[in-house]
What does this fold into?
Amino acid sequence: MNCARLRQVLDAWIDGELDHATSAEIGSHLDSCAACAALRRERNELRAQVRNGAQYHRAPAAFESALRRRLVAAADAGKGPRQRPSWLQAASLALAAALVSALAGYWIGGPAPDSTLREHVVASHVASLGNARHLTEVASGDRHTVKPWFQGKVDFAPTVRDLSEHGYVLQGGRLDHVADRQAAAIVYRVRNHVINLFVWRASGGDEALATSAARGFNLATWSEAGLGFAAVSDVDVRDIERFARLVQSGP
Amino acid sequence: MGDAGKMDRFERAVLCHLDAAYNLARWLTRDEAGAEDAVQEACLRAFRFFEGQHGPSPKAWFMTVVRNACLDWLKEHRARAVEEEFDEEQHGAGLGGHEQPEVAAERAADARWLNECVAALPREYREVLVLRELEGLSYKEISAVVGVPMGTVMSRIARGRDLLQQRLLEARRRKRS
It folds into this structure.
């Protein structure tokens, strides 16, 4: 590999798009060529600058709700006098129903979770981020490693799922507390955000999934089968809700 | 009701990428109202054609629909569609006016400058960089969204970064002098 060739493929290499053999050649060239190594440093700096500095334009909330109304209307229009295949009619109706219930969910938000519980969950989440070594006591992306690790440490079997195909990558787990209760904390990562999923023994009955926010973090909480669940992160509320539903239903 | 599951999938596979759609549309149209128009149109199209979608991922497929809606919007608003040459005078003066000793102010000016530089890139480079750096799409996915071969994606990303780096260096040099 010479310098000219390296410069053609450097970006693809940085993006992790090259095969092993070529990557190895590039690696050894960079070890021995100061000019190319400097170029790579510049590129990494540029990428960090763009990722951190370029604005990420999120869809405004008002736009989103107007859009959802528009989609419901479009689905309704499909039921008009024009002859359409019946599956599409059914689909339109189902979409309308799905959107209406989604909207209801957004507006009503379900029962507000106990604000003290919320505070405790956020406190444990923040504490776990403060020290990278503390984030996971068992570090593994394999649920068959993470789940058994809790055996004998907590008196229940926490839900540990592989959700990597949905973008939520398992990082591991640790023992933690939510308020005064011992909890299993399962750690996931989505893009660059950490999600803590706390699971503990709950005494009350089942509670439907509800989302809420506290101190700038988004939470999804629910309980089922004698276990309380709280997912918390600084990701968008839609991301945390989607995550929670995946934990509930499996991938 | 099998169709209810299908609609649930539409929500999960398409609408969950609404922010990504809006972000791409905002960078492509460089216009708030344009982004909203294009994303709304894209969602309606996505709903209609969702059944027959193929490709590397639902997100990439939706991004393709969004990009096409943006290109349509740009065509309709021809005046804006013209790739404006980067106005050194205007932007250079603007930056100079904001130069202040406080680090925070300087950082804000840097961020503003970075955003202006990205926005000023020709569309073919801007779109691949936004899809790569802000949306984290793979070259294969970008190739599907933009409709060009992988080799072209590779060279556009490299060239796009070259251009961006040049412009940021010019800015730094101007600031020092």
Chain B has ten helices and no strands.
